[in-house]
């Protein structure tokens, strides 16, 4: 009986996790509702559980909220409208040179974005940084090895899953860090830190852009078990 209860509990936890996984999708438009400092702190504390090389924990996090977020969004929209070229800290390589598998997946996604009626506002949503009420910028020292970018990625995903488990939505995007200069100016990120990624956080609006349905490659097409 006890064992049975334990198994049922385990099953329930597994199901909870799959719900968390399903909840984490890219949300491209947010309600103005602010996220509490307690919740922001809690998801970052969860993300600190991510693994890192020799427990180096190379990451730091700067979260823009309220007026700071609005200043970044205003500057971002102005730069976007003026057609100013991005100056992200990580280089952006021509997407045709990423390899056959990612290119084939990306072209399918790009075709979908171009034709899906829920995504007609895609470019505008990027430009206004999703109307998000908060944005977490993840940095590592500029002197860090490439492995620290791997660590920062684990940190970012853990943060997003923790957020999802609290019903908090997220949006990880190149767009968020496209203008590193405005992030340094308004969020006070020091010059010796590399801005790896930005994760928007908040609560999804009922805008149709959030109805966009994504897909994944069939597992059998990318998995080899020997
Ligand atoms: C590093 C990175 C950069 C991304 N940049 C953008 C972006 O600039 N604009 C955008 O709309 N989506 C961006 N995305 C979101 C992806 O398009 C999205 O994660 C992917 O299509 C899978 O969809 P899902 O997040 O809803 O599961 C980015 C995602 C990652 C991980």
TrEMBL record:
Alphabetical list of CDD domains matching this protein: PnbA_NfnB-like
Signal peptide bounds: none
KW Manganese (keyword) present: no
InterPro entries per the UniProt record, alphabetical: Nitroreductase (IPR029479), Nitroreductase-like (IPR000415)
Membrane-spanning parts: none
GO molecular function: oxidoreductase activity
A Pfam family this chain is assigned to: Nitroreductase
Domain Nitroreductase: 22-203
Record key words, sorted: Oxidoreductase
Domain of life where this protein originates: Bacteria
Gene3D superfamilies in alphabetical order: NADH Oxidase
Family per record: Belongs to the nitroreductase family.
Protein name (record): Nitroreductase domain-containing protein
Organism of derivation: Levilactobacillus acidifarinae DSM 19394 = JCM 15949
